[in-house]
Structure formats: structure tokens, C-alpha cells
Design brief:
The protein has 364 residues and is an alpha/beta fold. It has 2 domains: 7-30 and 275-363, Aspartate Aminotransferase, domain 1 (Alpha-Beta Complex), CATH 3.90.1150; 39-271, Aspartate Aminotransferase, domain 2. It has helices at residues 39-46, 59-72, 83-94, 108-111, 116-121, 137-142, 164-167, 173-186, 197-204, 208-211, 238-250, 259-271, 276-291, 317-325, 350-363; strands spanning 27-28, 76-80, 100-104, 124-128, 154-160, 189-194, 217-221, 232-236, 297-298, 305-309, 329-330, 332-334, 337-341. The strands form 3 sheets. It has a 7-stranded mixed sheet, with helices on both faces. A 4-stranded antiparallel sheet has the order 9-10-13-12. Strands 1-11 form a two-stranded parallel ribbon. α1 (39-46) crosses α12, α2 (59-72) packs parallel to α12 and α3 crosses α11 (238-250). The chain is globular, with a radius of gyration of 21 Å. Mean pLDDT is 94; it is low at 1-13. It binds pyridoxal-5'-phosphate. Pyridoxal-5'-phosphate (PLP) binds next to α3.
Length: 364
């Protein structure tokens, strides 16, 4: 059988749902999107003051947006239902149809947004190569097109912090500065997909405002490691957010009593940011354990995503997933590799248990 190129499978998080008859999931390393709101978070949500968000008078949404704008060092912020909608609205606001966006070849906007940029934004995405989801200033420079009537107008440079398929890798601040400097030279705007931005900030010990200082727009997802049930916040200049509101309305992203959900996000900012360090420590412990298994090649995790290659064991990713599922353990398959993700619902005590289960499943 011909081996499919890795990107053909880069978005197959299969199977997302345990098959009928599978035991309940005990250890969920599938994704940090699967965290459940804690009882304290639910309490905060129950107590939320609410208004009509679309009408501009939900006090809890205002509180969340004010906090996020301050945290990111931007003038304004906008609450949205999902991170995908943040990317779509940011691109619609920065670009015209036919413009080109430069992004890494493993980026979420290329692989995991259902072709939305062909279907809705009308931009073309130029995939940049580079190790572990990162590219350099030279890579960006090499991709600059001549300003002729033949070439698509280049408008936006997009960076994912952390780089998900790259391995949850943290972009070093210096490298962010170097690539955004090229964009500025060219008169392009810059956008950060900050789905896991707080993981990067905690791992690097750098404040969010400093990390995103050179970006015109940035968003943070509350449904990944932060553990809220819904919501993402897009930040930028007052003018940018003002224009973005038109697209929020057009796409149906304007909400009503969204304060209930925003309260969960505020709770996560207060209680779930510093603890991301525990997820990173658990990921490192998991990587150390997996490295002891013969035939397994483990990438050293920067944050909460542990990618490992099991080709040397002769067991396929799908077969491993099936064997683990039979023991109530979930992992995902991404780009021909296995991904195990640590988060709020994964304790340190679960790590050795997961390692033994994976060792047995690979030996079986
Ligand atoms: C999850 C994710 C998104 C999309 O966020 P949703 O809230 O699931 O729509 C975008 N980019 C990256 C890197 C992600 O991991």
C-alpha cells in the first residue's frame, strides 16, 4: 500500500467517539478540548450577570473583553463562540478576496477549518515550510512576491502559538520578532492564532502582552487547556475590532446572554492559567516514560502535546488507538504520529498508568 503523505491524515482525530460497548474513558489524552467545566467554574457561570451581548450590554462579556484587551496589551477585544470564528473574522477583516495569507504548512487555517478560506474568506494561503511548525525570517523573505498584476497581493502573515501539529512547540520571542519585522517591512498585517497562547506564555515565562506585541490581531481559546465549555476572544486595535464586528454580525456570531459563558472564561483566567505548568510537567513525564518503550520515538514536548512515532513497533496508530480504547484510554492520531495531550482532567497519577497501558498495547 502506498503511504499517504502525512498531511492527508493530519486532521483525522479518529475515532472521536468510543465505539458502542467500549468501556468508559478513564484517561483522556485525546485533546485538551475535552475538559469538562469544574464545579467551581459552573458555580461562577450560574452567578453571572447577563445582558444582551449583541446589543452591547452584557456586563460579564464586557468584563472578559476588558480583561483580555489589557492582558494582550491591545485596545479592544471581541467575544466569539470559537477559535475558528476568530481566525475567519480576522482574515475577513485584514484581507480582501484574492489576497494572500502566509502561514506554516501545518497551520490550522489550512487543515482544520473545512476549507473556509476557499468557501468564505476568498483568500489564498501560501504554505511556508519549516521544522516543528516554525519558520524563519529568511523563509518569509523567500516567499515575498513581486508587486505585479500577475502575483496575488500579499496581505497577512499568520503564526500559530503554540504550533499544534508542529508538536505544541513554543515560538521563541526573538523568532516572532524576526518574522513580524519582515511583514512590517512589506506593509503586511500580522495575526496570531493563539489557541494555546497561555501554554506558550507559561512555558516561556513571558507575559502575553510582550509575546503578542508585534501582532495586529491575536486570539485566545478558552476551550483548550483553560477548560471552559465555550468561547474565544479576538483582540486588536479599536478600529480593527470595530470592523470585525460587522463580520461577527454577518456570520451569526453575535450572541445574546453570553455572559453565562463569558463567566466560565473569566473563571479560567483566574484559576486555570498558572496550573498549565502542571500539564507541561505531566507531558514531560509522559515523554520520559514513553521513551523507555522499544520502537517508540518521542518528540520532547515544550508544552502539553506529546507526539510520538510508533512505526518501529509494527503497530499502526489506528490499532494502538483501538487497543487503548478497550482499556478506557484515548489518544489521537495526527499526521501519522500519535498525539497524547495533557490537560485539566489528566492527573500526575494517570501518567505511569497511561505509559504501562501503551507499553502493553504495543507489545500485544
Ligand atoms: C483548536 C484550534 C483552533 C480552533 O479553535 P476552535 O475553538 O476549536 O474553533 C485554531 N487553531 C489552533 C492551533 C487550534 O488548536
Amino acid at each position: 500500500m502506498v503511504q499517504a503523505p502525512s498531511f492527508a491524515r493530519s486532521t483525522s482525530f479518529a475515532p472521536a467517539r468510543p465505539p458502542a460497548g467500549a468501556p468508559p474513558v478513564r484517561i483522556n489524552l485525546y485533546s485538551d478540548t475535552q475538559t469538562r467545566p469544574t464545579p467551581a467554574m459552573k458555580d461562577a457561570m450560574m452567578r453571572a450577570e447577563m445582558g444582551d451581548e449583541q446589543h452591547g450590554d452584557d456586563p460579564t462579556v464586557h468584563l472578559l473583553c476588558d480583561r483580555m484587551a489589557a492582558l494582550m496589551g491591545k485596545e479592544a477585544a471581541m467575544f466569539l463562540p470559537s477559535g475558528t470564528m476568530c481566525n475567519v473574522i480576522a482574515i475577513l477583516t485584514h484581507c480582501q478576496k484574492g489576497d494572500e495569507v502566509l502561514a506554516h504548512e501545518t497551520s490550522h487555517i489550512l487543515h482544520s477549518e473545512g476549507g473556509t478560506h476557499a468557501a468564505l474568506t476568498g483568500v489564498q494561503i501560501l504554505p511556508l515550510k519549516g521544522e516543528r511548525g516554525l519558520f524563519t525570517a529568511d523563509d518569509v523573505r523567500a516567499a515575498i512576491r513581486p508587486r505585479t498584476r500577475y502575483a496575488p497581493p500579499q496581505k497577512l502573515l499568520e503564526v500559530e502559538q503554540t504550533a499544534n501539529i508542529g508538536g505544541g512547540v513554543v515560538w521563541p520571542l526573538e523568532q516572532l520578532k524576526a518574522v513580524t519585522a519582515v511583514a512590517r517591512e512589506q506593509g503586511w498585517n500580522t495575526h496570531m492564532d493563539g489557541a494555546r497562547l497561555m501554554n506558550a506564555c507559561v512555558a516561556a515565562g513571558i507575559a502575553p502582552a510582550e509575546m503578542v506585541a508585534d501582532f495586529d490581531s491575536v486570539w485566545l481559546d478558552f476551550t483548550k487547556g483553560l477548560g471552559a465549555p465555550l468561547g474565544a476572544v479576538l483582540c486588536g486595535s479599536a478600529e480593527f475590532i470595530g470592523q470585525a464586528w460587522r463580520w461577527k454580525q454577518r456570520l451569526g456570531g453575535s450572541m445574546r446572554q453570553a455572559g453565562m459563558v463569558a463567566a466560565g472564561c473569566i473563571h479560567s483566567l483566574d484559576h486555570h492559567v498558572e496550573r498549565l505548568a502542571e500539564d507541561h510537567a505531566n507531558a514531560k513525564a509522559l515523554a520520559r516514560g514513553l521513551r523507555q518503550i522499544e520502537g517508540v520515538v518521542v518528540e520532547e514536548p515544550d508544552t502539553n502535546l506529546v507526539f510520538f512515532d510508533i512505526k518501529g513497533t509494527g503497530v499502526s496508530v489506528e490499532e494502538l488507538q483501538k487497543r487503548l480504547m478497550a482499556q478506557g484510554i484515548m489518544v489521537s492520531g495526527l499526521g501519522g504520529r500519535v498525539r497524547a495531550c495533557t490537560h485539566l482532567d489528566v492527573t500526575a497519577a494517570m501518567i505511569p498508568e497511561a505509559v504501562s497501558a501503551i507499553r502493553e498495547a504495543l507489545a500485544a
